[in-house]
Amino acid sequence: MPELPEVETIVADLRPHLVGRTIVRCELNFPTIVRHPEPEEFVDAVVGMRIDSMGRRGKYILISLTPPHLWGGGGEAAGGAANNLQLVVHLGMTGQLRLVDPVAPLANHTHAVFFLDDGRQLRYRDPRRFGRLLLGTEQALLSSKKMPRLGPEPIDPEFAPDELYRRLRTRRAAIKAVLLDQGAIAGVGNIYADESLHKARLRPDRIAGSLSKKSARRLHESLRESLTLAIANRGSSVDTYRDAWGEIGGQQEKLLVYGRAGEPCFTCGRPLSAIRIAGRTTVFCRRCQR
DNA sequence: TTAAATTCCTGTAAGC
DNA sequence: TGCTTACAGGAATTTA
């Protein structure tokens, strides 16, 4: 399922193709996939917009839009990036955002199609419909709580080990549960929580606040290693994840623990254990993770 | 404030 | 083979 590395891969792939393009038409086959504003308003607002830039925040894809009357003035004319209108895409568990030629057959569960001025189509598909589309300025979406306040980006160079320690020390939940909390750290999901805890040799059910500064530093390092390695390998296709071209990633073959319950630990050979934390299957090694 | 439980949703796989 | 059932999980919402 798409977590930070998968979303980053999609954004990086789409950026050079989408920036500068104009949305000439938008069709919603399943309108309730749009959570804000009302679907008709969403379609009206998005048509005619030019895509200025693309970014990612946590697991959210941010597509910055500029209306025709500001073309040529640059995206900053409206008063800075935070005030720009954003088309926001969250992929949930099974969401796919693909750039295709119009002749490509329409896959089932394709809920939204954005027609671009170069003839190509940006299609949103999501069988389980846990994903969503939003439209608004970042400020408006945050203050109206359509988008949650997210914690720091774990791969941001500014994100220091002490910052992670500070965010963990007050928490009484399992460390795994806190890693999944998007308000604590943005972008980490079930796959990379398990992977980084294994790499840091930490038990996932350990109370977050009980971690020493040294352990937090180790977790900080392994989080960054797990995420950047996964980005380099174009993400993990363990379920339905596909990149913007419909291709699978490469990281699923290199995962240390996720999805390997009962199989031997690569470090010590002992079978990996599976427990449930915060409602999620959690795989770890009882010998290597203390 | 924090944390746990519940809900949404459908494809897949296991079990009979 | 075909049916039923359990399971997968991100995050909003509800409850404690």
Proportion in β-strands: 15-25%
Count of beta strands: 11
The tally of domains stands at: 2
CATH topology of the largest domain: N-terminal domain of MutM-like DNA repair proteins
Task: Write a structural description.
This protein has two domains: 4-143, MutM-like, N-terminal (N-terminal domain of MutM-like DNA repair proteins), CATH 3.20.190.10; 161-284, Helicase, Ruva Protein, domain 3. The protein has seven helices and eleven strands. The protein has 290 residues and is of the alpha+beta class. The protein has helices at 4-18, 39-46, 138-143, 161-169, 175-180, 190-199, 213-232, and strands spanning 23-28, 34-36, 50-57, 60-66, 85-90, 96-100, 110-116, 121-125, 132-137, 273-277, 280-284. The strands form three sheets. It has a five-stranded mixed sheet with strand order 2-9-5-4-3. The protein has a four-stranded antiparallel sheet with strand order 1-7-8-6, covered by helices on one side. It has a two-stranded antiparallel sheet with strand order 10-11. The chain is 26% helix and 22% strand. The protein is globular, with a radius of gyration of 20 Å. The structure holds a DNA duplex (16 and 16 nucleotides).
Q: How is this structure best summarized?
A:
With 290 residues, the chain is an alpha+beta fold. The protein is built from seven helices and eleven strands.
Question: What are its keywords?
Answer:
single chain; 290 residues; alpha+beta; N-terminal domain of MutM-like DNA repair proteins; Helicase, Ruva Protein, domain 3; 2 domains; five-stranded mixed sheet; 26% helix; DNA-binding
